[in-house]
């Protein structure tokens, strides 16, 4: 049983990414919302105002909702044309085609075969956008038809020379052919009407498990993220000394620069040395070496605070600690600013003294254990 309060909660915290649809078992709608940022912001606002309660009732297989859909299915041979849905299909198809087109290197767009690959990929993306929006709810249509419409507009994607591709024409073709072939999905609701009882071969629609829904959404989000990232990388520009330069060219120049080559050689040398050390001493040896280096740096800072050489004896350390503690004790200062400075210095001195005292004691204990247990 899905709860309206939970649906609104997920819509408020993650509506732009379709979390409420994921909760309600509407995986396709969740993926659509994730890849269009909540229906370009307008869709999620509309849902919060008008649609979420109906989505919850639908997820719970509410009898009134099912009866209403069954009545419409009986009265209409196929779903009626919806201007709102058609606009959503058209805009989503445009967006998918746009980011797919610009995700490819611009050098591909001026070559015959690579530009054909780009055009086909854009047609697939446009058809997918049309299909995702068009088949929300108890509606079905084979993906072949919106894809056919997009492929009919392929010349407008690859035949424009140096001009921009006409995504709008391709998206319009795809949406029109989809609307021509759209039909009802009788298996959308797990109902037990007479037709379903007599037709035992029909499988009732079951909502996917939450883990499976998350995997589907995650995979779709990863693919979308890769395409969007590539589109940004291929086309984002920055201003350098008054000249617009693409970020990918800046990055390419950096990888070719002498500074990067030197850095790469240094990192390679460090990795090789680290690997050789690992082969000889293992992970335990590496960790011991890191811990020893950190201890050395801490000891070095402590000696600097006390103004002592690193080879100072324990008596010298103790004498310097007493001297500096008396000198910087806050009670000796009455001026507020001087007192605050003395407090900070006094605390550093105490920490340094404790550090060296504890470290010497620890090393003495280790040496004692080694003498008592030489094996």
Characterization of the model:
The chain has 375 residues and is mainly alpha-helical. Among the domains are: 1-60, no CATH class; 282-370, DnaJ domain (Helix Hairpins), CATH 1.10.287.110. Helices cover 73% and strands 3% of the residues. Strand 3 (237-240) and strand 4 form a beta hairpin. The longest helix is centred in the last third of the chain and has 49 residues, at 258-306. Residues 339-369 form a coiled coil.
Q: Could you give the count of β-strands?
A: 4
**What structural class results from the helix and strand content?**
mainly alpha
Under the CATH scheme, the architecture of the domain at 282-370 is: Orthogonal Bundle
Output mean pLDDT. Answer: 85
Indicate the percent of residues in helices: over 70%
Number of helices: 16
- Give a short account of the largest sheet: 2 strands, antiparallel
CATH class of the domain at 282-370: Mainly Alpha
CATH homologous superfamily label of the domain at 282-370: DnaJ domain
Across the major sheet, the strand order is 1-2
Domain J: 301-370
Function: May function as a co-chaperone.
Protein name: DnaJ homolog subfamily C member 22
Transmembrane segments: 7-24, 30-49, 86-104, 116-136, 210-233
């Amino acid at each position: 049983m899905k709860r309206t309060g939970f649906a609104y909660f997920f819509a408020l915290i993650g509506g732009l990414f379709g979390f409420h649809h994921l909760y309600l078992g509407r995986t396709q709608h969740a993926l659509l919302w994730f890849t269009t940022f909540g229906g370009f912001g307008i869709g999620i606002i509309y849902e919060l105002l008008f649609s979420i309660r109906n989505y919850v009732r639908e997820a719970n297989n509410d009898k009134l909702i099912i009866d209403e859909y069954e009545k419409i299915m009986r009265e209409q041979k196929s779903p009626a044309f919806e201007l709102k849905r058609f606009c959503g299909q058209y805009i989503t198809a445009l967006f998918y085609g746009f980011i797919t087109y610009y995700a490819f290197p611009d050098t591909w767009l001026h070559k015959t075969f690579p530009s054909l690959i780009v055009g086909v990929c854009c047609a697939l993306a446009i058809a997918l956008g049309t299909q995702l929006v068009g088949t929300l709810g108890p509606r079905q249509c084979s993906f072949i038809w919106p894809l056919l419409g997009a492929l009919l507009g392929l010349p407008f994607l690859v035949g424009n020379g140096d001009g921009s591709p006409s995504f709008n024409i391709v998206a319009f073709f795809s949406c029109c052919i989809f609307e021509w072939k759209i039909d009802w999905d009788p298996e959308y609701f797990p109902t037990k009407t007479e037709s379903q009882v007599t037709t035992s071969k029909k499988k009732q629609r079951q909502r996917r498990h939450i883990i499976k829904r998350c995997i589907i959404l995650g995979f779709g989000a990863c693919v979308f993220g890769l395409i969007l990232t590539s589109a940004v990388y291929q086309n984002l520009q920055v201003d350098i000394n008054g000249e617009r330069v693409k970020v990918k060219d800046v990055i390419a120049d950096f990888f070719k620069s002498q500074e990067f080559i030197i850095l790469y050689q240094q990192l390679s040398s460090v990795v090789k040395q680290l690997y050789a050390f690992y082969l000889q001493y293992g992970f335990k040896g590496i960790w011991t070496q890191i811990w020893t280096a950190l201890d050395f740096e801490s000891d070095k800072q402590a000696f600097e605070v006390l103004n002592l050489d690193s080879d100072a004896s324990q008596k010298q350390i103790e004498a310097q600690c007493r001297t500096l503690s008396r000198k910087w004790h806050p009670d000796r200062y009455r001026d507020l600013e001087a007192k605050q400075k003395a407090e900070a210095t006094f605390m550093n001195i105490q920490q340094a003294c404790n550090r060296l005292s504890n470290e010497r004691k620890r090393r003495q204990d280790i040496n004692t254990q080694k003498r008592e247990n030489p094996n």
